[in-house]
Each structure stands twice: as structure tokens, then as C-alpha cells.
Amino acid sequence: MKIDTIEVCTLRSKCHMTKLITSLFFLFLILIFLNIKSSPSLDLYSLSSKSWGLMGRWQRTSKSRNMVSMLQESVTFLPLKDLRFSENPTSGNTWFMSSLNDTQEENEAEHLYFPSDASKGRVLCIKGRDTRDGTKNSYALAWPEALPDLATLLKGLTFVSDTYYNHENLWHGVCATIPFVRWSMKNNCIRPDRWALFHWGELRLKMGSWIEQLMRVNFGEVYVEGFNNGSDIPYCFEKVVIMRHDLGRLGLENKLKVSDHLRCKARKYCEINPIGRGVEVNERGEPIIRFTLLLRRGSRSFKNSTSVTEIFAKECAKIQGCILNVVQSEDLNFCDQVRVMTQTDVVASPHGAQLTNMLFMDRNSSIMEFFPKGWLEHAGAGQYAHHWMANQSGMKHQGAWWDPIGDECPSPKHDAECFSFYKNGKVGHNETLFAEWSRKVIEEVRQGKIEQMSKIKLNPTKDCGCLHS
Ligand SMILES: *[C@@H]1O[C@H](CO)[C@@H](O)[C@H](O)[C@H]1NC(C)=O
Ligand SMILES: *[C@@H]1O[C@H](CO)[C@@H](O)[C@H](O)[C@H]1NC(C)=O
Ligand SMILES: *[C@@H]1O[C@H](CO)[C@@H](O)[C@H](O)[C@H]1NC(C)=O
Ligand SMILES: *[C@@H]1O[C@H](CO)[C@@H](O)[C@H](O)[C@H]1NC(C)=O
Ligand SMILES: *[C@@H]1O[C@H](CO)[C@@H](O)[C@H](O)[C@H]1NC(C)=O
Ligand SMILES: *[C@@H]1O[C@H](CO)[C@@H](O)[C@H](O)[C@H]1NC(C)=O
């Protein structure tokens, strides 16, 4: 101590001061020493690091509390339906969640998934349950640690579907839901915990009953979210898949895979041999061809179903192995429909919902469709829905017949009026034409079966193309 003092005290004027500082320093050292003795479990390092640690943690907690509330408050809700794109609502990112980019994969429907790398781990939140104005509903991305105030976190996987058309219409409902089935097939056949349905950003509470049944067959119970906590409560999704392009860029091969999968699942659900019939033969070893006349009551029924039945019965009887089955579609429940169509190679039916069941026929089966007068001219492109359906489920649409006979539309210049005039008309028949047409189709199916008989059959997969189903 003395040596230090001497060395430091080269300038006399400052020496006194230095002595004081040095003494204070030693006093401080003694205090620390005593402190260590009185708390033997602590060394000098841990003593100081502990107190600094506490201090730091206190600072950090208040800082991160600030940060969390800053993040919460920075969550920005945008309108679900973006009117800037109302000229072209279905192109690009569409007018639904327009700020978010789709994930594009070759031959797959464009979709969005959150949380993702692209969202930097943020989840999707939706606020609002307006059923009339999509601009009143909104969406945002938020970090799971900083969900907006009052948010309800919906656990598990949610499928969010927005369609420009309609989830209740058979064709459009099928188009809106098929991409989810495909996405699920690619992801170990994972099932959603709920669906949220939108049309132009407006909330919808149900899908058509046939589509819902089909989704139930594939995914189990279908729960459609109603966001019932109130329109100002944000709902955030732990995991969410969003489809807003209907079939979008889903390629034909993949559409066929979905159809095969759904057919297989429906047969399994209804306890029908999922492998299907293959080629049945009669006692003479000839292939059996099952021809089903699928009737409906009311609008678009045949004017005289007895005579239509007679025409097909006569033709069928002329061809070896042909068996006619006449079925009233309204009398069938879902599994009856699946069973009837599993047992059908050719279905002849007026245009209508019952034809959607073509999905349950074996691949390559045939469809003959009948329309009332006036549809060809006034019904627009929608009348081809079963042609499209046949194409994407691997069936052969063998053409349609439009009845040329019937009352004339009273206001032929007005398309919409004429369509409502003809819409619910009935279907007549032309014996010559029906006979020739059905003969040709049955003969073609017979030839196909004979060819198939000579081929080695591949065993279809037992699991409907999914590992965990
Ligand atoms: C979406 O894509 C556009 C154009 O490719 C890009 O400019 C934009 O940053 C993307 N937005 C997000 C949120 O990734
Ligand atoms: C909001 O709804 C969910 C289910 O949809 C429920 O579990 C939750 O308790 C509700 N929260 C409030 C605050 O009512
Ligand atoms: C329907 O057709 C059958 C046989 O083709 C005929 O006997 C019957 O009278 C017809 N019914 C009506 C209501 O025209
Ligand atoms: C469907 O028919 C085509 C020829 O029309 C044939 O090449 C194909 O193998 C058939 N597919 C099945 C699954 O029977
Ligand atoms: C169905 O597919 C066939 C063959 O690929 C094609 O020629 C036809 O135009 C398609 N029909 C419709 C209505 O899309
Ligand atoms: C019935 O169909 C045949 C064959 O296509 C046709 O020649 C005939 O004119 C049709 N009859 C009526 C009444 O339309």
C-alpha cells in the first residue's frame, strides 16, 4: 500500500486525494471479503452475475412485454374481399386475401398454408362473419406469441375455401372441395378439424348435402365454422390451408387420382368391395354389361318413362350379357347410390343432380344424358357440367340428347326468361334414336370388356391410395 502511495504521489498537491481514494478502495475490498465470508455459497463472480442477471431479466421482461404488445397492435386487418380486383376477381391472387401469394406446384391447385416459412411463422387470423358483404370481413397474419386482443385460437387444421360460385351447387361444390382432398392425399391423408366457407369473402355456413356426405366419407365428421363468438373477435388458426381457385391448375392426372380415391373411400364406407366388380361373366363366359336407367321425378323427368324403359329393355335384350336395371334416384340413400353405381357400366339419365353419382362407377364407364327442349339454346355452359365431371372422374360421356319437341318460348329474344320457361321441362323420347344410340354404346362397352378380360389385372391398392386411411 505504501509503495503504491509513494509511486502515485509524485505530484504533492494530488497526493492527499490519492491517499483518500486508495483507502476507500481498500475499504471496499474488505467489505466484499466480509460479504463472501457471510455467504459462503456465493463467490464474487456469481454474486455480481446474479445481480446483473436479475437486473437484465427485469429489463428484458418489460422490454418483451412492450414488444409483444407492439406486435399485437401492429397486426393489420385487411378486407377479405378486395374491391380493387372486382374487374378480375378470379385472376392472380383473386380478390380474396389479395395480399397473400399462392403456393404453386406443377399440376396442383394453387393454395396457401399458414404458418409457413413465407409467413415467417405467422398464423392467419380472420375477423368478421358477414354473410352479405365480403369487404366487412377481414384477415391478418399474426405471430402466435402476439395474437391480437381477444383472439380465439382454433386448434388443429382448418380448411378455408373461397369460391366465386357456390358450395351448395353440385358441380361448383365439387370443384371447391376436390383440391382439399388432393392436398390431403399429398399430406398423409390428414383430416381437417373444421372448414370455413366463403363466397366472395362472405361467410357461408354449409355446403351442399351430397358434397358434405362425400367429404364425411373421406374425412370423417364435417364441421363448418360459424365464428360464433362475435363479429369483432379475431379467430386465428393454428394451421390452415386456403383454396380460392376452385380446381385451379389441378392437372387431369391428379383429378383422376382424387376421383379414384373418393370412389374407393365411398365404397369402403358403404361396405362394398372397394376393388369393384372387374369383369363379371355370365354362364356362357361372356362379359356382363350392366345398363342402369336412372330416373327422376318432377322437373326433367321423362314424359313417359314406361316407353323409355321399353326402348332400352328391347336393345339390352338383343345383346349377350346385357342386364337392364331401372332405378328411381329419389328412393336411394347415399350408400344405395354408391351401390347402384358400382353395379353400372352404362348410366342413362336425364340431366340432374343424380348424375353426379357417376363418380362411383368403375373407371371408363359410360354416361348417356338427356335434356328437355330449350336447354341447348338457353342453359349456357353449365349444362355441360356432367361432361366435365365425366372427364375428371375418368368416365366416358357418350353424348347428350336435347329434346327438339315442346312448347315454344313466348319471349324468344330474352335468354334468361326463356331459360326459366324451359328449365323445369320434361324429356320426351325418340325411339329410333334412343335404340341406335344405346346399341352403339352397349356394343362399345362389350368390346372394352372383352379386351379387358384378356389383360392381366393390376391389384388396386387396399388403402385407397393413402397410407393412413
Ligand atoms: C407476392 O408476389 C409478388 C410478385 O411476385 C411480390 O412482389 C410480393 O412481394 C409477394 N408478396 C408476398 C407477401 O410474398
Ligand atoms: C370462442 O369460441 C370458441 C369455439 O369456437 C370457444 O372455445 C371459446 O371459449 C370462445 N371464446 C369466448 C371468449 O367466448
Ligand atoms: C307411355 O307409353 C306407353 C307404352 O309406350 C303407353 O302405353 C302409355 O299410354 C304412355 N303413357 C302416356 C301417359 O302417354
Ligand atoms: C379405359 O379405356 C381405355 C380405352 O378406351 C383403355 O386404354 C384403358 O386401359 C381403360 N382403363 C381402365 C382403367 O379400364
Ligand atoms: C373431355 O376430354 C376429352 C378428351 O380429353 C376432350 O376431347 C373433351 O373436349 C373434354 N370434354 C369437355 C366437355 O371438357
Ligand atoms: C328421331 O330420330 C331419328 C334418327 O336420328 C330422326 O331421323 C327422326 O327425325 C327423329 N324423329 C323426330 C320426331 O324427331
Automatic annotation (TrEMBL):
Pfam families: Glyco_transf_61. The keyword Nucleotide-binding does not apply. GO terms for molecular function: pentosyltransferase activity. It is found in: Golgi apparatus membrane. Residues 274-367 form the Glycosyltransferase 61 catalytic domain. It is a single-pass type II membrane protein. This is Glycosyltransferase. It comes from Lithospermum erythrorhizon.
